[in-house]
Amino acid sequence: MQVNVHAVNFNVDQKLIGFVQARLDKLEKYYDKVVCSDVFFKLDNTSAKTNKIAEIKVNVPGDEFIVKKQCKTFEEAVELAADSMERLLVKRKQKVRASA
């Protein structure tokens, strides 16, 4: 699956890109018709420790899913967002199978 990583106003480390690619490749186990995914990293401009935002957008035929999580680290945010995305993709797969 093609994963595009976008960082808003900063540069992303290669280790983080590798982590994101490995984590999102696991999504294909839950729904195999994923076309591509975009990951957006943003820094929230607050004094709180949970200022890192990861937003995952997954394109499937006929639809797209967006999950946004805010945590202390980008890795934690990606992990939580990917877990939520797994649940969405499982629901989508069941819905498609039920209507077929």
Automatic annotation (TrEMBL):
Pfam family membership, one: Ribosomal_S30AE
Transmembrane segments: none
UniProt-listed InterPro entries: RHF-like, RHF/RaiA
NCBIfam families with a match to the protein in the record: yfiA (TIGR00741)
Protein name: Ribosome-associated translation inhibitor RaiA
